[in-house]
Structure formats: structure tokens, C-alpha cells
């Protein structure tokens, strides 16, 4: 068997032969013309970040998160402590938006992955840049540390306080000033071949090429009860002449369904300005990959609800992982030909100590989201992962942080990707912009560089 293609509205799934799954060893999943994923920055999911996190970060059954200062060897810097005079000053700057209620503060002190927790006693909610400026002026004069916070959806502990920093929330600064509609994708065996074919035939209309492995698919179907369009009967119609079933979603991509055991899935999305021209290019691509055996099955969707359903399978992997146990997250940039090798190596290295070792990401820019789950936090698992993951990445001349940033958790590993001279320059630039070091301390840069 060959891989799968599913495509929403120029998206589709594809499975390629490689290392996992039934008789095929790579699946791919591809997608259609860019349809705005409405409702939230989570894209395909229909929930807002706050509702999205509440499913597992504020559950009454969830155990209390250990304070960051107790789990990690970090020392509080000599910043001032918030006083009554400070509260009065902030009330004059942002009247009615000075929050000291511990119950409200709890959600802002804990990251949504429930791995780090601060002890801030103050949350400020400015609406304008002028208010932010006045707040920071006061904090600079008083030597009060500040923790800026947006949606608190960070993966590396950068969005929550480490100690008692003042939380400066941008939640009310939600006016859209301008919007630029950007598209384009500048851009292991069959997945990589399909990627090459995809770039060659779709070219400028290719806007996304996402991959995920079979364990990711198992997690989202197991923990979130999301249905795979590759197996969901509602995405099929019978062929009147042969009796076979084909995947559809307003457009038809002929192929047979396969089981969930296919090792990889690819989601492809295209975005072009001429529908007829784009459809022709897509059809040429589908015909070639299906006839060559790179792809065995897929679906194409134009209906925005089915487009969202396909994106949900990719975009809610982090949520599914969080429900599987304690998560060790790594966001790496690697050469595309070695992108999945680290996942395979770690499965052998960790053995039964890990519940799951999964890989997914953006093939176009060599971005691998490597995730490992265990029943609970385990020093043994962490010791097997670090510094092994960073050393492995450095040997491939990759980056230890591709898009999640460094935050609090990864600041100590920047040296695997940057030389000492670069670290010193970063420290110097930080000192120029923030001479007292009050802005998000303990984050991004090593304590000494």
C-alpha cells in the first residue's frame, strides 16, 4: 500500500511508505486553498485560548503545579516587592483594571501546559500603549520586575512569572491596526519525495505542508475523540460503477480508505488568486502522486467546516499530548533528510520509560516538534533526554529552538546553537534596551554569557 492524501479545499491527506504503520511507512495529509480559520488564534479549533486551556489547566481534578522556584535551580534577583503605594499608582494609570484576586491570578501564574507556576500577586490590564508606557515607567523607577503576557499559550515558560513579577496582560489591547494577507511556502522517503513533487507542481500556490506521525493521530483520536477523515464514513461516497468508496468533501480525490496504522500523514494547503488555474495545478499534482504510488488515499475539502476539521487534527496535537501525561517538549530545526531520525532514536533510547515519543511539524522549514510523554514528571526520563536532544541537534547543525522561543525552560541551551560571541552581543543589546533587567527576567538569555 502507499500513503494517504487528505485535502481540505485544496487540502488532502497522503500516506507515504517509510518507517511506521501497517504495510505503508509514511502517511501524509495535505490541504486546500487557504480559508481563514475562524474564531481564535488556535485556527481550526473552535475554542478560544482561555476555553482551550481550561479543559486541562484549570480542571478541579488537576494536581497543583509545583512552583517554578522549587522545581528549577533559579534565584530571585534583587527586585522590589509590590507595595500599597504601587497599587495606588497603578490604579491611577489603569483604573478598575488592577487585579489582586488570587483566584483570577491563578490562571495567569500557571502555563497552559501546567509545568511551571509563578507567585505574582498583581495583574495589570492596560488598553493602550500609553498606559503600558506609564506602567513601565513606574516599574523602572521602582525596580519592579514585569512579566508581559498575551494569551499565555507559550510552550517554554516564557509567558508566566518565575517569582512575583508584575503580570502585564495585553488581553485588552485587541484592536486590529492592520492586517497583511501573507501566503507562500519558501521553501522520510516518500514524504520527502511528495514534498519535492508538491513544490515542483504547486509552486507559488503552496502555502502549507504539515506532517504528523501515526502516534500523533492516535493521540488526537484517543484523547480528543476527533475523527480521521481517512476512516470516517461520512467523508466517503460510493462509486456507482465499481462499488468502491472514495473520499470527498465537495471535491473528489479517488482512492481507497486505509487503516489508522499508516505511519505518517501530510496536510497540504494551497492559496492562489485564480481558482481555475489553482484547481488545474492541484489536479495535476494529485494525478501524479496517486499514479506513482506516493499517495494511496486522500480527501479534498472546500467547505470551511471540513477544512477546520482537518486542521484540528494537526493543531490540537499539543492538547492531546497534555492529556496523555507529563510532556517533555522540544522545538527543533533540522535538515529535512534527518528530520524524523531523532524520533526513531529516542524511541529506542527511552524504551518503556516513555508512553509516547511523537514527531510532527513543518517540513518546508525543517521544523520538528518532538514530544515525549510519561505518566508523571520523571528525572530519569529528563536525564535521558537532556542534553542528548540538544547534542544530537547540534551535531546536525540545527537549532535548539525553531519557533517556540527559549523562554524560561530553554535559555540554558542557547549555547548549543549560538557561539559565545553571539550570546555576549545579545546580552549587550538587552542591557541597552532594559538597563535594569526588569522586563521578563530569567527568560531567553543565559544568566551569564
TrEMBL record:
Instruction: Give a single Pfam family match.
Output: FAD-oxidase_C
| This protein's record includes keyword Metal-binding | no
E.C. no: 1.1.99.39
Which co-factor is required? FAD
Residue limits of the FAD-binding PCMH-type domain? Answer: 116-353
**Reaction(s) this enzyme catalyzes, per UniProt:** (R)-malate + A = oxaloacetate + AH2
GO cellular component entries = mitochondrion
InterPro entries for this protein: FAD-bd_oxidored_4_C (IPR004113), FAD-bd_PCMH (IPR016166), FAD-bd_PCMH-like_sf (IPR036318), FAD-bd_PCMH_sub1 (IPR016167), FAD-linked_Oxase-like_C (IPR016164), FAD-oxidored/transferase_4 (IPR051264), Oxid_FAD_bind_N (IPR006094), Vanillyl_alc_oxidase_C-sub2 (IPR016171)
Keyword terms: FAD, Flavoprotein, Oxidoreductase
Q: Which domain of life is it from?
A: Eukaryota
Q: Can you provide one Gene Ontology molecular function annotated for this UniProt record?
A: FAD binding
What's this chain's function?
Answer: Catalyzes the oxidation of D-2-hydroxyglutarate (D-2-HG) to alpha-ketoglutarate. Also catalyzes the oxidation of other D-2-hydroxyacids, such as D-malate (D-MAL) and D-lactate (D-LAC). Exhibits high activities towards D-2-HG and D-MAL but a very weak activity towards D-LAC.
Q: Which family does it belong to?
A: Belongs to the FAD-binding oxidoreductase/transferase type 4 family.
User: What name does this protein carry?
Assistant: D-2-hydroxyglutarate dehydrogenase, mitochondrial
Q: Which organism is it from?
A: Puma concolor (Mountain lion)
Read off the lineage from the record.
Eukaryota, Metazoa, Chordata, Craniata, Vertebrata
Amino acid at each position: 500500500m502507499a500513503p494517504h492524501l487528505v485535502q481540505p479545499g485544496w487540502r488532502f491527506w497522503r500516506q507515504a511508505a517509510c518507517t511506521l504503520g501497517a504495510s505503508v511507512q509514511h502517511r501524509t495529509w495535505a490541504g486546500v486553498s487557504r480559508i481563514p480559520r475562524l474564531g481564535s488564534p488556535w485556527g481550526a479549533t473552535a475554542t478560544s485560548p482561555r476555553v482551550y486551556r481550561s479543559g486541562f489547566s484549570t480542571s478541579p481534578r488537576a494536581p497543583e503545579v509545583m512552583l517554578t522556584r522549587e522545581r528549577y535551580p533559579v534565584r530571585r534577583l534583587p527586585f522590589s516587592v509590590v507595595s500599597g503605594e504601587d497599587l495606588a499608582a497603578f490604579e491611577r494609570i489603569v483604573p478598575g483594571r488592577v487585579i489582586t484576586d488570587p483566584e483570577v491570578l491563578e490562571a495567569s501564574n500557571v502555563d497552559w501546559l501546567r509545568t511551571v507556576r509563578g507567585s505574582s500577586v498583581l495583574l495589570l490590564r492596560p488598553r493602550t500603549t500609553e498606559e503600558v508606557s506609564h506602567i513601565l515607567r513606574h516599574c523602572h523607577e521602582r525596580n519592579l520586575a514585569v512579566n508581559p503576557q498575551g494569551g499565555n499559550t507559550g510552550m517554554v515558560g516564557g509567558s508566566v512569572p518565575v517569582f512575583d513579577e508584575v503580570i502585564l496582560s495585553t488581553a485588552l489591547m485587541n484592536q486590529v491596526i492592520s492586517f497583511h494577507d501573507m501566503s507562500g511556502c519558501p521553501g522520510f522517503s516518500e514524504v520527502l519525495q511528495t514534498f519535492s513533487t508538491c513544490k515542483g507542481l504547486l509552486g507559488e500556490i503552496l502555502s502549507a505542508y504539515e506532517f504528523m506521525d501515526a502516534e500523533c493521530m492516535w493521540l488526537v483520536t484517543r484523547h480528543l475523540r476527533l475523527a480521521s477523515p481517512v476512516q470516517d464514513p461520512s467523508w466517503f461516497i460510493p462509486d456507482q460503477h465499481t462499488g468502491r468508496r472514495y473520499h470527498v468533501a465537495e471535491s473528489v480525490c479517488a482512492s481507497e480508505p486505509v487503516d489508522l496504522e499508516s505511519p505518517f500523514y501530510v496536510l497540504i494547503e494551497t492559496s492562489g488568486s485564480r481558482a481555475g488555474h489553482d484547481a488545474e495545478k492541484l489536479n495535476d499534482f494529485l494525478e501524479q502522486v496517486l499514479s506513482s504510488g506516493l499517495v494511496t488515499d486522500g480527501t479534498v475539502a472546500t467547505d470551511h467546516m471540513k477544512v477546520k476539521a482537518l486542521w484540528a487534527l494537526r493543531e490540537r496535537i499539543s492538547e492531546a499530548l497534555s492529556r496523555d501525561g507529563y510532556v517533555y517538549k522540544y522545538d527543533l530545526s533540522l535538515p529535512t533528510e534527518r528530520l524524523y531520525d531523532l524520533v526513531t532514536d529516542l524511541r529506542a533510547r527511552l524504551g518503556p520509560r516513555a508512553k509516547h515519543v511523537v514527531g510532527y511539524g513543518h517540513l518546508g522549514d525543517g521544523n520538528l516538534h518532538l514530544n515525549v510523554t510519561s505518566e508523571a514528571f520523571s528525572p530519569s526520563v529528563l536525564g535521558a533526554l537532556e542534553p542528548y536532544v540538544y547534542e544530537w541537534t547540534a551535531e546536525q547543525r540545527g537549532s535548539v529552538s525553531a519557533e517556540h522561543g527559549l523562554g524560561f525552560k530553554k535559555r540554558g541551551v542557547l549555547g548549543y546553537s549560538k557561539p559565545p560571541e553571539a550570546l555576549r552581543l545579545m546580552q549587550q543589546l538587552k542591557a541597552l534596551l532594559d538597563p535594569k533587567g526588569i522586563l521578563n527576567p530569567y527568560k531567553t538569555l543565559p544568566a551569564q554569557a
